[in-house]
């Protein structure tokens, strides 16, 4: 394997998922301040700025920050790009001199840019790529983690974050394959554990890759913290729009919005609804939105996307939620 791998940029421009639906949920008025917490290639930020918003965009990936400078320069001052994790958006905005905003948008998970770049090691389409998977390009790589973790802990991670039913078997095969250095090393171990048939619609390694990536990057913890931060920075009447791509993320967002809109303890004619506790910080969430056939056909990444949105009330920020998962690292 050569020392420097090509970046493999996408063959066509990145397509933001559910863009029109997100913009509808945000209901941007000219002059408003909005946060794009997951800048990526800047698709949402450009569209928000085109509607007249002053956009504060956040990304933890140095590649996104570097390449995003062209988007910032072309925005004529409408877009400000802030390096960091959207989980810390309240602190990042405070450093930028912003105390509250009119909207927050989050597009959760790995970006198309990251998946399509061989050197990042996110996709099993590039077997010779280094086993990296770090969104921030800092800290422990996936290879370093897999070469030290015991099979019991690894099995728990694969089950919890990848919903892999044969997690213990897969973990044993991964540990037996050490040392792992490339994407192909990990894919091979999973295929030996689970088998691989030419007609499989989904590669058996998909769940394992998802689990390791989510754990390594502390994605679920960041999502929970980011939702809390969004609640804190949104003004009364501000809008929150979150796009997720799998059930673990969607459950966190759905649970957050149900709890913060006062729907968690709904009653019945046999048990009246409880009215105690803090006032709802969000109005009843809008119905979940999923992409239509035309968008899925044009952009297969959109297939599993779900958009959830809600409007902020004027109630004070509630206490922080208790994490709904265990073991993810921030």
What does it look like?
This protein is an alpha/beta fold and 330 residues long. The protein folds into 2 domains: 19-112 and 219-311, 3-Layer(aba) Sandwich (Rossmann fold); 122-217, Orthogonal Bundle (DNA polymerase, domain 1). 38% of the residues lie in helices and 12% in strands. It has helices at 19-26, 43-50, 62-74, 89-95, 112-115, 142-146, 151-162, 167-176, 183-194, 206-217, 219-233, 247-260, 293-298; strands at residues 33-36, 54-59, 79-83, 101-107, 234-244, 306-311. It has a 6-stranded mixed β-sheet, with helices on both faces. Strand 1 (33-36), helix 2 and strand 2 (54-59) form a beta-alpha-beta unit. Helix 7 (151-162) packs across helix 8 and helix 7 crosses helix 10. The longest helix has 15 residues, at 219-233. The chain is globular and about 55 Å long. The protein starts with 18 loop residues before the first helix and ends in a 19-residue tail after the last strand.
Please tell me the overall pLDDT.
89
- Extended strand count: 6
User: H/E order of the elements?
Assistant: HEHEHEHEHHHHHHHEHHE
Query: What is the end-to-end distance?
Result: 31 Å
Radius of gyration (CA) equals 21 Å
> What is the structural class?
alpha/beta
Please summarize the sheet with the most strands. Answer: 6 strands, mixed
The proportion of strand residues reads 5-15%
Number of helices: 13
Domain module count: 2
CATH class of the largest domain: Alpha Beta
């Amino acid at each position: 394997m050569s020392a420097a791998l090509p970046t493999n940029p996408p063959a066509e421009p990145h397509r933001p998922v559910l863009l029109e639906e997100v913009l509808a949920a945000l209901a941007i008025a000219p002059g408003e301040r909005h946060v794009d917490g997951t800048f990526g290639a800047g698709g949402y930020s450009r569209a928000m700025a085109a509607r007249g918003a002053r956009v504060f965009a956040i990304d933890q990936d140095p590649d996104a920050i570097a390449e995003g400078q062209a988007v910032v320069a072309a925005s004529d001052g409408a877009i400000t790009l802030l390096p960091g994790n959207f989980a810390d958006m309240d602190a990042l905005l405070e450093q930028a001199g912003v105390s509250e905003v009119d909207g927050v948008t989050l597009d959760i998970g790995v970006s198309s840019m990251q998946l399509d770049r061989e050197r990042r090691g996110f996709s099993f389409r590039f077997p010779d790529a280094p086993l990296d998977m770090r969104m921030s390009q800092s800290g422990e790589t996936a290879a370093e983690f897999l070469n030290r973790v015991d099979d019991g802990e690894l099995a728990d991670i694969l089950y919890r974050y990848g919903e892999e039913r044969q997690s213990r078997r897969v973990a044993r095969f991964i540990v037996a394959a050490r040392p792992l250095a490339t994407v192909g090393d990990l894919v091979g171990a999973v295929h030996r554990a689970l088998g691989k048939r030419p007609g499989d619609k989904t590669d058996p390694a998909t769940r394992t890759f998802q689990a390791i990536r989510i754990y390594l990057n502390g994605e679920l913890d960041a999502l929970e913290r980011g939702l809390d931060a969004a609640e804190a920075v949104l003004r009364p009447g501000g809008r929150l729009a979150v796009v997720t791509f799998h059930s673990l993320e969607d459950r966190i967002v759905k649970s957050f919005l149900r709890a913060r809109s006062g729907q968690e303890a709904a009653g019945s004619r046999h048990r009246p609804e409880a009215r105690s506790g803090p006032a709802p910080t969000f109005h009843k969430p809008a119905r979940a939105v999923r992409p239509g056939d035309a968008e899925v056909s044009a952009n297969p990444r959109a297939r599993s996307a779900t958009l959830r949105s809600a409007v902020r009330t004027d109630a004070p920020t509630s206490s922080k939620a208790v994490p709904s998962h265990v073991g993810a690292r921030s």
